[in-house]
Specification:
heterodimer, A: 290 residues, mainly alpha, B: 544 residues, alpha+beta, five-stranded mixed beta sheet, three-stranded antiparallel beta sheet, 12 strands, 39% helix
Chain lengths: 290, 544
Amino acid sequence: MRPKWMGEPRLVTKIAKALALIVVVSLVIFPFWSIVATSLASPEEVIANGGWVVWPEHPTLRIYEALFQEGVVTRALWVSLGVTVFGTALSLACTIFLAYALSRPQIIGGRPILLLVLFTFLFPPGMIPSYLVVTTVGIHDQYSALILPFVVNVFNLVVMRGFFQGLPGELLEAARMDGAGEWRILTRVVLPLSKSVVAVVGLFYGVAYWNRWFEALIYLNDSQKWPIGTVLRQYVNAGSGGEAGGEGGVFAPQSMQMAVVVIATIPIVIVYPFLQRYFVRGVLTGAVKA
Amino acid sequence: MDRRSLLKMVGAGALATTGVPMLSACGQGGDGGAGVANEGKNLVPWPTYVPFQGPTPDGAPDATGVQALYKKYPQKLVQAVTDKVGDGSKIKAMLITYGTPPKPAADNQFWTAINKALNVELELVMTPEADFVKKLTTVMASGDLPDIIMFGAGYQVADEQQFIAAQCQDLSEFIAGDNVKNYPALANIPPYSWKGMGRISGKLYGVPIERPMPGQQLFVNRTLLDSVGAPRNWDQDSYFAAMKALKGDKRWSIGASAASVAGGFANYHAYCFGAPNMWKVEGGKFTHTFSTPEYKQALEFMRKMYEAGLYYPDSTTVSQNDLKTHFYNQTVASMTDGYGAWQAASDTVGDKWAVDLALPYGKSATPWQGSGRFGYVVFKKAPADRIKLLLRVLNWLASPFGTKEYELANYGVEGVHFTRGAEGAIVKTELGKVENPTNVPIKYIAAAPGVLYYPGGGTLAQRVYDYEKVALGKSIADPSNGLRSETYSTKWQQLNKVMGDAHAAIVFGRRPLSDWDTEVKSFIANGGDKMAEEFAKEYAAANS
């Protein structure tokens, strides 16, 4: 006999579950919907509704047209896309190489290198030392300042190293006996078995590069090089805080702010479902082995 | 990795992170800030004030700080700068911005026109207000300085004056006394603005960005107030009665934001009760306004208003931007904002209702003057010719109302950013609403002294002028304005935050009014007394 919880639920239970799911989903969907709806409303309607619109009376894409025509947001999207694609590729390559090397017990100097890497995780540099390094190596005000300082994330490295350590040693030994070198073992044996962890670490890197805004503000003087996150922040903050300085600035219409939020969010929303299936497997497998 | 290795690493890291700063602090050998004080120094003279003889105003300015009123835009503009300004070189300026991101200079007709007029290539390092201090402190620490750096905007950066004295150009030989006459638009900046910026070690290091005398203001919905019969010249009772009458279903009479609830809004009531403008000087001794009975009375009155349900319910959390939306859609009937907000507010609400400035209530009201400046700019150290070039750029950008330069710097290119309406009034084009000195923030490099002219027409400028006529006569200045105090520069932000939290807790009924005295004692003991002492010495030096 099957236990009670594995049997067919009663109708009341089904309804209760459905209601609970509807409530939870609504809590997630509603804020996002109000952002989309506000972006489609006219600035006058937004003000009349106290800042947020749930159902625009006369939905319009006017704000989106204005944003894309002006070119600042479009350019920032391309910058973010470029930084995310190149940054993720470079980060994945560096993380895979380093994690693989550090996962091999016979590597010379592996332990001190691991300690050095972990040291930066436990004691991250402050903003000013990082700025000085970026300036000294000559990448200040360049797109590479958004990639190189963040090329290896120690958390991702530890997850990937743990995953590699969990692979059966016999497989690697067999490949070695067949004459494969480390490069061939990595590319032909290890990576094909590590798709899930590579996907999830790639997702972590991609989201981090896409969302990175503060470093752009600090490292890039030229606002034309700012990614979408930094531009979004400027739209959202426009006109705020002027009271102390006596300015009382003009803020960007809420519908425009929300339109930029939507534009900045859509790429991640599109990519996420394709990688989600790797998510749990990738992280858990890497996390349990240290 | 085993636990022992991890612990060793943590220990080494802790030593590195605590030891290195200690060592570096030893190596700097600074003077601890004493060098920036003006006490005991030879003070260079303030720049000579030579007012611009511009178009005849409809309302005359006066010595109390009332601005010139222009009901119409001048028909004939004069050319203020006839000599060549720049040499085609690049000028990098680090500025705050409250605007939205602009197109690059090459694609931006406003920016291009300014560059062409100045014959320079302005490279603007624009930092949104929310992150301005972080960026500024990082750049200060790096030593990699742009040509022009803006300070101010209501922020006091730690070791600001020490940094300027050590790293920036002393401008005394260029602009002190009559030397400023080489830059007529800078000579047109009124003395209160220079004094608001202050000297460092007796020298002039910067050029102020002028703002008119009135400080933060209580903006009101005059249409709603008229509907409940509230008088413009109100007293405490009629103010309270009006606020109670305005309270309605889904409408609150008092709008305060997280930023203003213990800031601008509290200040309005403090000066209505006659509290001193931040500090009071008596017999050379400084006393903070927090310590005065008038401030405590204002606090009690604000608590009474809260108990009457007049405050917007989210006053401790709502952002200033969201509060503006509530003000514009008449959810709240009043709010405080910077003085410069009157034009933006009127632009937004149009003809729907009338924006107005609230006169202070109370017979002994002492409206608080602002610092006379939004901020100031300093220059990176450079040869004299380069400094003169930078000053010529500032001089052009500060060209006064009634000049062709002012028109270009403030409204852009005719036919592109604005057209002429009735009687020559400036009417912004759609492009002018995007390409302007807010989004390309050249007005934070230098700006002309303000006048009361409102391109939107109507009676608003006249109402602001009338307000200034009534309020400025009895207004008082902050005696610490432009003075140096090491303790203030290092501790004020923290102490003010503590006092602000206590203020909000008392007004919103979470703590008893009697707690205020305890907080004031703590404020005095934790640095307030030291600030008072340092300001008193500076004040004596400046007025000797």
